[in-house]
Design a protein that fits this description.
It is a single chain. With 240 residues, the protein is mainly alpha-helical. The chain has a domain at 24-49 and 56-193: Fumarate Reductase Cytochrome B subunit (Up-down Bundle), CATH 1.20.950. The protein has helices at residues 22-46, 61-86, 104-117, 132-156, 172-175, 179-211, 215-221, 228-239, and strands at 15-18, 223-226. Strands 1-2 form a two-stranded antiparallel sheet.
Length: 240
C-alpha cells in the first residue's frame, strides 16, 4: 500500500461512532474461533493421522476429537443464530438491510465498492458500517453457515444416543441427498469458509489502511472514526 493512497482523517475532523455492539462482537469472535476448531477437528475426523500404541479404547483419540468438534459446533450454531436474530434487534449497522441492499444508495455503494476492490477506484466509497458489497458477501457466508449447521446435524443424527432429541434431525438427511452427499457438502463448505476468512482479513486490512478509520480495531472496541460528511450521509439515508 503506497503512502500516497492512504488518506487519514485529520484529528480535528474525526468523529467516533459506536458501530459494532457487544453482541455483534461476541458473535463474531465466537464464529471465528469455532470455525478454526471445527476445521482442524473436522479434517482429523475425515483423515485421522494420529497413531497410538495398544487398543484404541484405551486412548479414545477419535472420540475426544469428536467431542471437541461437537462442542465447537454448539458454539458456532449459537453464535450464527444469535447474529441472525440481532439483524432484527441491533442498531442500524447490524440490521438485515446492511446485508441485502434495498435502496438505490446501497446499490450504488455496491458498484463503487466493486470498483475499489478491482483497483479501478482509488478510494473506497465512504460508509460507516459494512459497505454494500461486503454486506452482500456476508449474506452468502451466513447462508453457507446455515448449510454447515444443517449438514452437521444430518450427519450427527444417526450417531446420537437412542432417545436423544438430536435424532430428530434425521429428517434433514434426504434434504441433502443422503449422508455421503451431506458429508461432501459439509467438506466443501469448510473450505469455502476458510477461504473467505483469508479474504476477509485481507480486505479488512486493505480498507483500514486506506481509510484510517479503525476498521480492524472496531471489531474489538466497537468504534470507528468517520468524517462529519459521512455521518451526515448515513443519517440522511436512515431518516429517508
Amino acid at each position: 500500500m503506497s503512502a500516497a493512497l492512504a488518506r487519514p482523517i485529520p484529528e480535528s475532523r474525526r468523529i467516533r461512532v459506536r458501530v459494532w455492539e457487544l453482541p455483534v462482537r461476541i458473535a463474531h469472535w465466537c464464529i471465528v474461533f469455532s470455525i478454526l476448531v471445527l476445521a482442524a477437528t473436522g479434517f482429523y475426523i475425515g483423515h485421522p493421522f494420529i497413531s497410538v500404541s495398544g487398543m484404541a479404547r484405551d486412548h479414545f483419540v477419535m472420540g475426544t476429537i469428536k467431542v471437541i468438534h461437537f462442542y465447537a459446533a454448539i458454539v458456532f450454531t449459537l453464535a450464527v443464530l444469535s447474529r441472525l436474530v440481532w439483524m432484527f434487534m441491533g442498531n442500524r449497522y447490524a440490521r438485515w438491510n446492511q446485508f441485502i441492499p434495498t435502496s438505490r444508495r446501497r446499490l450504488h455503494n455496491m458498484y463503487e465498492s466493486l470498483r475499489f476492490y478491482l483497483f479501478i477506484r482509488r478510494d473506497p466509497p465512504p460508509v460507516i458500517g459494512h459497505n454494500a458489497l461486503a454486506g452482500a458477501a456476508y449474506s452468502v457466508i451466513y447462508g453457507i453457515c446455515l448449510v454447515m449447521i444443517g449438514t452437521g446435524l444430518a450427519m450427527y443424527a444417526p450417531q446420537a444416543p437412542v432417545g436423544s432429541p438430536m435424532r430428530w434431525f434425521a429428517f434433514l438427511i434426504p434434504f441433502f441427498g443422503g449422508l455421503p452427499t451431506a458429508r461432501l457438502i459439509h467438506h466443501i463448505g469448510m473450505w469455502l469458509l476458510l477461504a473467505f476468512m483469508v479474504h476477509h482479513v485481507y480486505s479488512s486490512i486493505l480498507v483500514s489502511a486506506v481509510e484510517h478509520n479503525a476498521t480492524i480495531e472496531s471489531i474489538v472496541s466497537g468504534n470507528k472514526f468517520v468524517t462529519p460528511e459521512t455521518l451526515a450521509e448515513e443519517s440522511e439515508e436512515s431518516d429517508a
